[in-house]
User: Fold this.
Amino acid sequence: MNKKLKLSLLAVFGLITFIVLVVIFMAIFRLCPPIDSGPQPPWCTNPEIFERDFSTAGLGGALRVKMMELFPYSQIEDSYYQPSNDNLDYFEKPEKINDYKIKFGIAPNDFFWPVCVDFNLCIDPRKKVDSTVNRISSLNTDFIVFTDYVRIDDEKNIFLGKGSLKQNQIDHKIKVAQENELETFVLLNLFLDDSAARHMEMDDFGEDARFGGSLIAKSVDYWDPDEDNMNLLFDNWEETLLENLKRWEKADNIIVNPEDTHFHFLSHPELQNKRNKELIELAKNNYDGNVCVHFKDTMFLKDNPGIDYYKDADCVIIGGHFPYKYNDVENNVDSFEEYFINHFNHEIFKEENNVYQMMSTMSYDDYIEERWIEVWDLSQLNRTHEPDFNLQANAYEGFFRAIQKEQPGIKGIFHYGFWWDDVNFEDEPLNVGLKDSIRNKDAEHIYYRWSQVLK
Assistant:
């Protein structure tokens, strides 16, 4: 073999070895290529992944996350809402006009693992459980809603994964909530795919790649599974639910159908009704607390009048990301109030089913015309937004005015997405100000004001 051929073979071998080492390195540190580069490697469907580019910043962030997971952490700082800081002057403070009462709750933001955008810029919500629960309690709140994650793979297996809370984390959350005299709910979120793919517009990927070609389409045949696959999904979910009923046995309430998809497959409403009744019965036989179900919105009930499984549950949660865009809502409190008056006209709010209404509105400039987004993904979505705390406050004020005027048959309301830290929005570089949290924003004052009036 001549020298030139040997060098060529060595070059090819070296290149192959380099590529293999890069792939192994990316897998170990869970680094992902850009979302628009094509199919993603399997480790990029994990909930821990927020970095979408193989860059120096992405590498530094991944290394820092690994370091943070290895070392112990402790609870730090306290945080309490200060009513004296309420200088909101574009709404008059509400007044109590009757004896109508509801409970007030808050759901902290639903991630609880370290997130680092580079080696120096990190947030770690594990350290802020105590201070966040303290602040929630100080807002005149009655209950708290915790989120836990369950994973699904492309074989429809459903299981506890790395994104699920550890038992000591669950026990600590319950303990701190009880110390603050807060009733506890737990919401189980079936995690399907990385957030960037899940929230891309369909047109960005083409009609044959619904939801970004994500695990949603592959795993659950979104909106159109056959009966065998639908039964398989429920069978697998029931097995994991039993595990979570044990893990969360000290919580007062558990929401048993999975958030995000809810298995709302409109092809087989009768089968869904039957399996959800079985799900509720299973939970009641294995759980001492209240068993609740969750609907993404009221449209599902409007479109399927035969659905009645929720009547077997102890309480019903109605989701709180509202389609303002499709209802001609404008960014003023009167328009939001009119929207919510119409919302509360649904029959479910008149049936006395122990209904809880979730409320979540993002605080960025054109949220009405857009929709919910994951702020970590803005650079990959090629979008930029500016915070608009006034828009969020208008929505919350209109929401509470509608409740006071209509007095719907609800047991309580809760804000979803409360941030884990008292962020200084002028300095923060993570787009936290755009999120649905009301913490340290105008809407937090709105929430507290109305908790004095509707309780």
